[in-house]
Amino acid sequence: MEQGAGNSADGDVLIVTAVEAERNALLRGLGNGSPFDVLAGGVGPAAAAASAAARMARRRYRLAICAGIGGGFPGRAEVGMLVVADEVAAADLGAEAPEGFLPLERLGFGSSRIRTDAERSDRLAEALRGAGLPVVVGPVLTVSCATGTAETAKARAMRVPGAAAEAMEGFGVAVAAQNMGIPFLEIRAVSNPVGPRNRGAWKIEAALERLAEAGAVIREVFG
Ligand SMILES: O=C(O)c1cccc(C(=O)CC[C@H]2O[C@@H](n3cnc4c(=O)[nH]cnc43)[C@H](O)[C@@H]2O)c1
């Protein structure tokens, strides 16, 4: 089999977005007749985990991808860029304490971070670069509450050194994939900077177009 080609005998590829607009953008790029099951699973880690787990219980998948738009950490991933996660981090899952935020690790409840499949992430990033798309590889934070101030942006970036992007579903899909023993990837098209909330300035259409371009590359690599 040619390098990068999938084997549909091993199952399809599940792609989980938050909303229909993201799903439609990916479907534009993926085209018809591909072994991709693209699901708009809802906003936030709980909805994403529940939707992904329900799908995974019904069918066998060879790969799970969380995809959508996201916030980019300034200096790491600017608006219009793509971020391929090398790990996902549940950045607001834990406890507040007088001395600061305590992640799951400090509470003795396991890990707040999940590594993505390194070989497939590298292959995807390389193919995106080959297609002339601007791509950064780094940690993608999963949050239940989107960052809206410079202080929170700074605190979250410090919590996860090298943080490239922030979104709201990745950790949920990653936990579902981990439980099923399926390799996991996350890709985000940056629509806004992580920082003071300015929803009117989000470049959603441009990010969705970027996501569609990424979809075409995902089809080449994993189709
Ligand atoms: O209003 C629209 O037309 C529209 C079209 C597509 C997507 C949206 C969303 O609002 C998607 C929500 C989704 O986006 C992720 N996201 C984007 N930026 C951030 C951020 O700065 N911090 C956290 N999450 C972000 C997130 O995964 C949401 O589920 C609207």
UniProtKB/TrEMBL annotation:
What GO molecular function annotations does the UniProt record carry, in alphabetical order? adenosylhomocysteine nucleosidase activity; methylthioadenosine nucleosidase activity
Indicate the enzyme's highest-level EC class. hydrolase
Question: What keyword terms does UniProt attach to this protein?
Answer: Hydrolase, Menaquinone biosynthesis
Instruction: Cite the Nucleoside phosphorylase domain residue spans from the record.
Output: 38-216
Q: Is-annotated flag, keyword Hydrolase?
A: yes
Q: Which SUPFAM superfamilies match?
A: Purine and uridine phosphorylases
Task: Give GO terms for biological process.
Answer: L-methionine salvage from S-adenosylmethionine; menaquinone biosynthetic process; nucleoside metabolic process
Q: What is its EC number?
A: 3.2.2.26
Query: Under which pathway is this protein filed?
Result: Quinol/quinone metabolism; menaquinone biosynthesis
Membrane-spanning segments? none
Reactions this protein catalyses: futalosine + H2O = dehypoxanthine futalosine + hypoxanthine
The UniProt entry, under InterPro entries, shows:
FL_hydrolase_MqnB, Nucleoside_phosphorylase_d, Nucleoside_phosphorylase_sf
GO CC terms of this entry: cytosol
Task: Give one Pfam family, short name only.
Answer: PNP_UDP_1
Q: Which family does it belong to?
A: Belongs to the PNP/UDP phosphorylase family. Futalosine hydrolase subfamily.
Q: What does this protein do?
A: Catalyzes the hydrolysis of futalosine (FL) to dehypoxanthine futalosine (DHFL) and hypoxanthine, a step in the biosynthesis of menaquinone (MK, vitamin K2).
**HAMAP family (alphabetical):** MqnB (MF_00991)
This protein is called Futalosine hydrolase
The protein's organism comes out as Planifilum fulgidum
Q: Which gene encodes it?
A: mqnB
